[in-house]
Amino acid sequence: MTTFFHPEQAHTTLFQSPAWHQAWHHSWRPILEQDPQLNAISVAGAYQTWASLKGIIPVCSLVPFGCQGPRLGSMRSEYWHQVAAIDSRPPSIEGWLQRALPYIKHQLLLPDVIFDSASHEAIRRFAAAHKLTLLERNESCAYAVDCQSHSFTTYLAQLGSSSRLKLFNRRKRLAQVGHVRVVNRWPDITGFIEQINGFHQSRWGRPCFTAPNRIFIEQLLTQLVADGHRVDLSTLIVDEQVVSVLLDLTVNKRTYNLQGGFLESRFNGISLGTLHFGYQIEKAFLDPDVLAYDFMAGDGKNSNYKEKLATLKTQLVDLALVKSRWLAACYRLNAQKNRLLD
Asked: Could you tell me which residue ranges the BioF2-like acetyltransferase domain spans (predicted)?
């Protein structure tokens, strides 16, 4: 299902949108310019970052703009294809790799490429043609719900009984507790982020958005709306108490669930986070302009709820194009060591 996750015009994804890259440069470019271990290379659409391998050997990595890398903890950017273009005709991935090639000192890191996609194949060919060692690392799965092929009712019928209960059937029990509302809190970005941070602090022991990622998300949401996309600061309220929040961004017929948070164990037998997803997924099904509700990659704290709710999934892989022979040898030795331990 790589074509479903990777449309022909890859620059239409959230992560390759002008808004994403403008917000990324707004929040992270000052750090690139201040940190002597980081170096922005505009002509390559990437930055160099120095970090120590095993805390000993200094390694220089080239990373595309808009993506996180060693020493730069920006938000995860999935479905990587190529750098965003200013005009409506993005450069080919081969062209971008060719421009980046002279600036690869030790390795080029390409995070979250869709496995066996056209992009993956192009990267494989490029690595072979230029005698770069290609390593595939850190595999993960991205999940989505197809909202066009069938109805919400049919989707519910396909779920397991436990998932259907948590996602939809518990609405009746919640309505018995109090008055239930789901509202879009836009344009109260500040209040919404504070709400997410509070939920995350309670659940994970740390806030979700801190500077400069907080600067990034505030700029991203504002720019997306300015560009004609939709931002849903979805808030589930029971008797005037906020019990769950979901940050949903609809960009080019795809709704991305970027973040969320909820009160744990507030009501007996009701999973507020999953129930809130039910409202949002139903909303996506009812919107003829939405093709999919995208959970993206990542697992839950206690279970992989995305896999249980999704109808589609695809494999993502981090790629390293290694130019340095000694670094490639280090990676091979480490892989052999891990195989022996297994």
From this structure: 163-306
